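USER: Write out one fold?

ASSISTANT:
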Amino acid sequence: MSTVEKETDKDVLLDVSKLPTFGFGHRSPMWWGTMGLVAIESTVFALAIMAYFYLRSHAGAWPMSGLPPDLLWGTLNTGIIVASMVPNHFAKRAAERLDLKKVRLWMSVCMLVSVAFLAVRVFEFKTLNTHWDSDAYGSIVWMLMALHTTHLITDAYDSLVLTVLMFTGPLEGKRFVDVSENAGYWYFVVLSWIPIYAVIYWGARI
């Protein structure tokens, strides 16, 4: 085989122009970034919950300032948040199939659900029956609520940006990866709320 033929074969073997420019799951750097963020934020939530029980163990009465939070709005919002996993699941599946039409549909549904639970969250804050500066109980309850609400707002904003991009472009393959990872992160936001809900709404009742 001549030198020219060897060089040609080498160039063919090294040609990566036809390889995919994006991947889903662990093949995506975005997935690893999301998992790292989840690990960090899980630690923050865990520390905040531990602080709640530490303060409770040193308090003569709990809650200190009177009544525990009203159950109505918190329980309603828990139902909405858990239900929101359905459109996010379908958005994730559609993104991984590169199905633009269904991604647009399910991301729009996700945005409607986001507006619903953020609206209900306002009523939750109003019925906590304590203020952030009332005492240690009020401070830790408001901190837990504020931490989770921050995640809700930032992910709702991220979902809004992705939804707009899906309608306006540019529609690169990595945009579908972004939708998939956004849905995966939303699962974390939802599942992290379950123990926080239990602590805030039932921790003061047990």
